[in-house]
Amino acid sequence: MNDALTLVKKTAPVMPVAQFKSLDHARACAELFAEAGVPAVEITLRHADAWQMVKMFKDLVPNALIGVGTVLNRRQMLRAVDEADFAVSPGFSRELSMLAHKTLSTYIPGVATATEIMAAMAEEHSVFKMYPATAIGGVALLKAMSGPFADAVFCPTGGISQANYHDYLALPNVHCVGGSWIVPSEEALAKDREGYVTMLKDLYQ
Questions:
Q1: For position 205, what pLDDT does the model report?
Q2: Three-class SS of residue 178?
Q3: In angstroms, rounded to a whole number, what is the distance separating the alpha carbons of residues 126 and 132?
Q4: Distance from C-alpha of 29 to C-alpha of 27, rounded to nearest angstrom
Q5: pLDDT confidence of residue 2
Q6: How far apart are CA 18 and CA 96, in angstroms?
Q7: Which residue segments constitute the domains of the chain, with CATH numbers given?
Q8: 129 classed as catalytic
Q9: Nearest Cα to 19, choosing from 39, 48, 40?
Q10: Measured between alpha carbons, how far is 43 from 51 in angstroms, rounded to an integer?
């Protein structure tokens, strides 16, 4: 799925992984991301209004690719195909992989082990979300995986922060990281919106 490779290159260095607290929080961040020129956003399906948030981002951030994260089943995948630009899962499912191929959708499956990488590569995937990255070995694990899986590209997510993301990006098999730290809370945004605009522009422009 070469579209997945294009996606991680476009969104480098950081894919915002957003778990918004409310529709108002999502709207405030959408307006921020539009102003700052954020190229892609992954909105997790961990809120009852997540699909409304996806639509809001599609409307308010038209120049960005808007994806759905925490896609766990067929129903969510099919809806993501219709309503989002890409889908991301925390693990690997052959059923979801087949749906992505059938619908020609951009899909990044999650992996945590060599066995899962092999299973996903057998379904013609080469771009993966390594999750939960820090908890399962972090930089050391990704270095180890580069030997047997020289063609694999990773977007590690989970436990990655402003303090350590450069360590991941220094690896040749990591094209971007997933991070929630660049998605401000409503309180932080109210306090220093201009600071976040500057930070995001520095990241992406």
A1: 84
A2: strand
A3: 18
A4: 5
A5: 53
A6: 22
A7: 2-200 (3.20.20.70)
A8: yes
A9: 48
A10: 9
Compute how many other C-beta atoms are within 10 angstroms of the C-beta atom of residue 135. 10
Catalytic residue among 42, 95, 116, 124: 42
Given the residues 83, 129, 194, 201, the one annotated as active site: 129
User: pTM to 2 decimals?
Assistant: 0.96
Under a CB-based contact definition with an 8 Å cutoff, are residues 127 and 117 in contact?
Answer: no
CA-to-CA separations, 82 to 66, 103, 134, in angstroms, rounded: 12, 10, 32
| CA atoms of 205 and 193, how far apart (whole Å) | 18
Beta strands 153-154; 86-88: pairing state: unpaired
Determine the 3-state secondary structure of 50 from DSSP: helix
Q: Which two tokens stand for residue 120?
A: 């996903």
Mean pLDDT by 10 residues, the chain (205 residues): 86 97 98 98 97 98 97 97 97 97 96 98 97 98 97 97 97 97 96 97 93
121: Cα within 13 Å, side-chain hemisphere: 14
Active site (annotated) includes residue 42: yes
